[in-house]
Specification:
Layout: E1 2-5, H1 15-28, E2 34-37, E3 41-45, E4 49-53, H2 60-72
Parallel strand pairs: 1-2
Antiparallel strand pairs: 2-3, 3-4
């Protein structure tokens, strides 16, 4: 899995946040292709590619929830 964290993303502030997110996502789906934390949206490439707009205060757990949603729905 590849995590691309753009400079002004609202989710990852520290290296510890990055490692925590990586661990959470690996637990949900170790075969996920990539996660892109862009400035205004999240892009997840699994079996398909989905884009999510951030809520007001996105968190690592919110990102993990989007991947969980995709896994549960076969996306």
């Amino acid at each position: 899995m590849r995590i691309d964290a753009y400079i002004s993303n609202p989710v990852i502030a520290t290296q510890q946040d990055y490692y925590e997110l990586e661990e959470l996502l690996h637990e949900i789906d170790p075969d996920c292709c990539s996660v892109q934390l862009r400035t205004e949206r999240l892009v997840i490439e699994n079996l398909s590619r989905r884009t999510f707009h951030y809520p007001r205060n996105p968190s690592i757990h919110w990102v993990a929830g989007r991947l969980q949603y995709m896994v549960e729905n076969g996306l």
